[in-house]
Known about the structure:
The complex is a heterodimer of chains A (288) and B (743).
Chain A: E1 4-6, H1 11-17, E2 26-29, H2 35-40, E3 48-51, E4 60-63, E5 66-70, H3 75-79, H4 82-87, H5 89-95, H6 101-106, H7 109-115, H8 123-128, E6 132-137, E7 140-145, H9 146-149, E8 150-152, E9 155-156, E10 163-170, E11 175-180, E12 191-197, E13 206-211, E14 218-219, H10 221-225, H11 234-246, H12 258-283
Parallel strand pairs in A: 1-3, 2-3
Antiparallel strand pairs in A: 4-5, 5-10, 6-7, 6-10, 8-9, 11-12, 12-13, 13-14
Helix pairs in contact in A: 11-12
Chain B: H1 6-10, E1 26-32, E2 38-44, H2 46-50, E3 54-59, E4 82-83, E5 89-95, H3 98-106, E6 109-114, H4 121-124, H5 131-135, E7 140-148, H6 151-157, E8 160-168, E9 180-186, E10 189-194, H7 199-210, E11 217-221, H8 237-247, E12 251-254, H9 257-263, E13 270-279, E14 282-293, H10 304-308, E15 320-328, H11 343-360, H12 365-372, H13 391-408, E16 414-423, E17 430-437, E18 440-445, H14 454-467, E19 474-478, H15 495-517, E20 524-529, E21 532-537, E22 540-543, H16 550-554, E23 558-564, E24 577-579, E25 588-599, E26 606-618, H17 623-642, E27 673-680, H18 701-713, H19 724-732
Parallel strand pairs in B: 1-12, 10-11, 14-15, 18-19, 26-27
Antiparallel strand pairs in B: 1-5, 2-4, 2-6, 3-5, 7-15, 7-24, 8-13, 9-10, 9-12, 13-14, 16-25, 17-18, 17-23, 20-21, 21-22, 25-26
Helix pairs in contact in B: 11-12, 11-18, 12-13, 14-15, 17-18
Amino acid sequence: xxxxxxxxxxxxxxxxxxxxxxxxxxxxxxxxxxxxxxxxxxxxxxxxxxxxxxxxxxxxxxxxxxxxxxxxxxxxxxxxxxxxxxxxxxxxxxxxxxxxxxxxxxxxxxxxxxxxxxxxxxxxxxxxxxxxxxxxxxxxxxxxxxxxxxxxxxxxxxxxxxxxxxxxxxxxxxxxxxxxxxxxxxxxxxxxxxxxxxxxxxxxxxxxxxxxxxxxxxxxxxxxxxxxxxxxxxxxxxxxxxxxxxxxxxxxxxxxxxxxxxxxxxxxxxxxxxxxxxxxxxxxxxxx
Amino acid sequence: xxxxxxxxxxxxxxxxxxxxxxxxxxxxxxxxxxxxxxxxxxxxxxxxxxxxxxxxxxxxxxxxxxxxxxxxxxxxxxxxxxxxxxxxxxxxxxxxxxxxxxxxxxxxxxxxxxxxxxxxxxxxxxxxxxxxxxxxxxxxxxxxxxxxxxxxxxxxxxxxxxxxxxxxxxxxxxxxxxxxxxxxxxxxxxxxxxxxxxxxxxxxxxxxxxxxxxxxxxxxxxxxxxxxxxxxxxxxxxxxxxxxxxxxxxxxxxxxxxxxxxxxxxxxxxxxxxxxxxxxxxxxxxxxxxxxxxxxxxxxxxxxxxxxxxxxxxxxxxxxxxxxxxxxxxxxxxxxxxxxxxxxxxxxxxxxxxxxxxxxxxxxxxxxxxxxxxxxxxxxxxxxxxxxxxxxxxxxxxxxxxxxxxxxxxxxxxxxxxxxxxxxxxxxxxxxxxxxxxxxxxxxxxxxxxxxxxxxxxxxxxxxxxxxxxxxxxxxxxxxxxxxxxxxxxxxxxxxxxxxxxxxxxxxxxxxxxxxxxxxxxxxxxxxxxxxxxxxxxxxxxxxxxxxxxxxxxxxxxxxxxxxxxxxxxxxxxxxxxxxxxxxxxxxxxxxxxxxxxxxxxxxxxxxxxxxxxxxxxxxxxxxxxxxxxxxxxxxxxxxxxxxxxxxxxxxxxxxxxxxxxxxxxxxxxxxxxxxxxxxxxxxxxxxxxxxxxxxxxxxxxxxxxxxxxxxxxxxxxxxxxxxxxxxxxxxxxxxxxxxxxx
Lengths: 288, 743
């Protein structure tokens, strides 16, 4: 498992080291909390690891009605950005649930997104928030919506030699994240449900996404459509729960049975909607 | 109080077994069976030998010529024709460095023919089997059947017979330091440095396994990063020694966490069928039928079944009872001791069953227990007289706490109580050597401190208190088995209680010797001055070392030795009809625990909010160490209760061999409010009347939590652990419990 470890100081140098034709491939290294154990366990055999730690990617910025989160910004720094708690309360509560504090000091948002773990606690809220990604390679930049970026469990449209420069999230957006685990902390969620509210959609102001699915975390558009207004009636909420439970393929594995996951999906969706409605009330007047 | 070993440990300054290196050392890595049961047709090591850096490969074929004499017929050191569990060692590769050893191990080709495996007790035995079925069952390893009176007849006359089935999971010790050792054989000196609870036990085990006389084996303990029963047996040491013998070089083996889960010896699943008879409101009889998975254990070598069965009766007066159990040899890792082996599981069944019986009858479960609990002067179910035993006192305190919590808890919370009992290993022997030297008072030990403070803090405390001086002037030094005095080891809750006895005798001997030597005839007192023991008599005081002879001075000090070999008294009751083996109890210890929980009725998530332990202590020797043991046992027990479970996939492989999905409690999991009360006065047979504390406080934890969940919800979860999924299913009824082994 010998490999070279590089610390490029410029994008040009990084892209040269990440040569898409190289064999075995060089892999970009951000926090390494997922990649390094995988390399150690022999699941990946990189030709080299290219650390992104010296590139100017650990940034955070508010630009108009978006926050721009640099690809290598550690989660711990992100969760401490006052703007996150204030403008994206649902994302903030998911951030505080990732692994442990020491892990979040290293783990990055870009890393979490490109790994595309089916059990990620960050992808459901980012999907519900309609996040998009700025990707950069030696050929230039492209922007892609997260929903199109994710292709399956551990699978994305990221090209070799391409890096996540920024994650863009529209603000402010009331939202919430509800999850269930066997052990409350330092564990993988069996199901996680994120909801968020947007202001400009004739169909529904609700955005709903969940993890714990048979494949990667996904939007639940059927459930969204059952909620035509910001403050749904109990009947509408039950209809959304019904559609979510019926229209979703869920995982059945050692962490939870399919039946229990389906039960949880309904319980957590109901709780998340209720919480988001309350947050929307308290955020009134500050929304775009 | 801050332990003196805490800071160096936190800084990484104390060497553990994987930290020690010797010049010219090789690394060895195991090749283990990927199948629970398979025939080995061929082992091809040629590929491994080609890997640069690989020095040696050891397989079963190499063993016969290597051992000095044919060892006792125990488990083969390496699998020969058949592998019987995933993780069973088949070969080892030794190399100049770890990556080369791993690369070599990955190139050993083993040709297996997979055989049918028996790994799922529940699937094999959906019901209690008939005697006919078991007579011919090839996997029965032991059968125990004990009774007093005729249960069926009592049941026939009873007002009510309560019947339930309980099931418990595979749980592992999970020391944060996996097994590791470093061996060096030079001539007749078979030396191994290892992380162990019992250097002298390992020496004996190695002598048996390698066919060597004990005096040729020299075991040195290192600082131990947790044992919990898993470091009593020679696991890696025989292989490291054999490789060192062959290569002429020192050899290190250090397990990964995954290997630790796969082939260390641990607790396997069990199923209990419980029946209790009530007559005129009184519990008159109980029957337990137990199927115990003992993994790939050896035929006829089962201690677990006969030892554990008695715990399912609880410490209660019964007119008659029947206990029957089978230990089953399965294709899982062999059963091994694990902090109060099987007692938490048996008590989960026993105390859950009692609680549910009392609630069904509309009686307060604590009152019900108080009406039946053993009191001093009673006899245990197996016939030993009940000596000093604080179960009743503990129940009264628990009743008070449970009432207060119930009154102050929000609606929907539940409060549960459970009582566990234990019988300790205070009979196992130990010897002490205390030296008065210019460096202070020094105890020489074979075992290193294992983390609980019993060696490092408890023993100096005993010396200090015996002499009436502060413990800071007493220190502990370590020696290997050729130099340190014999001791049975850090297990069975015996260290402070039993070895402490020998240490107290040595300190007493030193006191008498100094009194004899000190000039004058008045009373002698001891103090500490500038870190040294000082003697005062008749108005004169001087360093104790002034009383040493020139010979003693030349030999490093005045040495006093003492030994304590306790007695495990008691015989089984004569009226007991017994097939198989059971063991009499000695030195009974009670643990009475109270848990308050909240239960999320939709998700099934259980939170333990308040927890109280009333422990039958005898006499506390080292208060912070005592408290630490009780706290640790409770938190570990909460893992067994709520989150820990070894899961097998359909092919019989452990699906969660790692810390991600085998969920031990983390620092954020202990209850926010934890009360620990040592009930002193019911004196035990340890030093100063102490009783062991390492194991007893883990015993009632799963039962206390399950009883609190039942109190909160009315639903009784009879399968461990109480994961949110299981609790949710119990609350929703209907859905089948996924059972042990699946989730």
